[in-house]
Amino acid sequence: MTEKIKTDSILARTHKDSVFRMIFGKPEKMIELYNAIFDTNYPLDTKIDINTIEEVFHRVQKNDISFTIDGTYIMVTEHQSTINPNMPLRDIIYILEIWKGMFETNQLYKRKRIKLPQPKFIVLYNGTEPLPPVSEIKLSESFLGDTKNPLLNLTVLVYNVNEGIGCDLLAKSPTLYQYSQLISLIRSFQARGPVTEQDMGEIVKMCLKKGILVDFMKEHGKRLIDFLHFELTEEENLAFEREDGYEEGLEHGLSQGHAMGLAEGVADATERLNKLTTMLISSGRIDDLKKAAEDTVFQRQLLEEFGL
Fold first, then answer.
1. Sign of CA dihedral 40, 44, 46, 50
2. Nearest-CA neighbor of 84 among 234, 190, 238?
3. Distances (CA, A) of 184 to 43, 117, 193
4. Fewer CB under 10 Å: which end of the chain, C or N?
5. How far is CA 265 from CA 257, 277, 279, 293, 303, in A?
6. Domain boundary among 131, 155, 190
7. Does residue 204 belong to any structural domain of this protein?
8. Are strands 64-69 and 155-160 parallel, antiparallel or unpaired?
9. 284 with 169, same domain?
10. What is the average per-residue pLDDT within 51-80?
11. 138 - beta bridge partners?
């Protein structure tokens, strides 16, 4: 291969970005995704208004893509490798924020009805927990009392876009199918052990050979694999800390604290590590973050550097 593969950092990347947003953040990719999900045939020059909400709940990493297509429908999309049963609640907050930007407050008190683009809520799932090709999460499942006929509800459609599961979206969206292939490829390397620099180069070569996100690979190369590998690992690690039982979480926290040689308790150690992770991501120091996960001496040096 004569064309040079770039391995430099992705320009202007912030800690709120994700590889998914980078790939599907262009209007033509949003239209491709919408057409695949809802069996429509909007042309690629259809008007798209991007209205993704930033900094909702002060999240460290932002994975959502939200847009209005043809001024009629809003698709609120989140890509996840762990399922969150609170997505309907989060989505109702998202859509209220989006709608609020579409009219003046005083219009609420006038007799003329306010017309709003209709929202559709989607989760694209590619985690390791078994899920059917399509499922739903309903807001009413969180309500107390009688929920047979709730006067308020919101349904999130969950598509399992893992390769080999049988989700028909992959046949309808070439970009989503290639993204799913990339995730599967990275996971196959993760199953062997820590993903090395050499592994990343091999993944890039395999993607170029198989026609997986070729233009993106040529532009970003191993750095793209590095970011995506980190995203998958970090999101699943955070889910472990949030969702697992007390004893497993305590054991995990104790091992972290022991490895760092900290005298503080588990909660303090976890808080300091989370802050360090956030600061390194926001500074674009992904390589330092990876090194710190394997080198406790370097980890302590970083904690001192950031005053933690």
1. positive
2. 238
3. 30, 35, 15
4. N
5. 7, 18, 21, 19, 16
6. 190
7. no
8. unpaired
9. no
10. 75
11. 155
12 and 35 in contact (C-beta within 8 Å)? no
52 and 145 co-located in one domain = yes
Closest listed residue to residue 88, CA positions, set 144, 30, 157: 157
Residue 202 lies in a domain: no
Q: Residues near 82 by Cβ (< 8 Å), separated by ≥ 6?
A: 127, 129, 235, 236, 238, 239, 243
Sign of the CA dihedral 9, 12, 15, 16? negative
| Residues spanned by the domain of 292 | 214-305
Please state, in angstroms and rounded to a whole number, the distance separating the CA atoms of residues 80 and 238.
12
Give percent of the chain with pLDDT exceeding 70: 75
Contact 259, 297 (CB under 8 A): no
In the predicted model, what is the mean pLDDT of residues 113-135?
94
Given a contact cutoff of 8 angstroms between Cβ atoms, the answer to whether 77 and 176 are in contact is no
Give the span between the Cα atoms of 214 and 25, in whole angstroms.
Answer: 17
Instruction: Say whether pLDDT at 26 is over 50.
Output: yes
When pLDDT is cut at 50, 70 and 90, the band that residue 3 belongs to is very low
The number of C-alpha atoms within 13 Å of 15 and in the hemisphere containing its C-beta is 19
Phi–psi pair at 23, nearest 5 degrees: -75, -45
- What is the bridge-based pairing of β-strands 48-50 and 64-69? antiparallel
- Residue 119, strand partner residues: 74
Long-range residue pairs from 201-210, CB within 8 A, at least 24 positions apart, any chain? 204/5, 205/1, 207/181, 207/182, 208/1, 208/5, 210/181
Cα 261 vs. chain centroid, distance in angstroms?
Answer: 32
Q: Is 292 left (phi over 0), alpha (psi -120 to 50) or beta?
A: alpha
Q: Is residue 207 part of a domain?
A: no
Residue 235 pLDDT: 57
pLDDT per residue over 227-256, tens digit each?
Answer: 676 666 665 555 545 544 444 444 555 455
Instruction: Write phi, then psi, for 59 (nearest 5 degrees).
Output: -70, 145
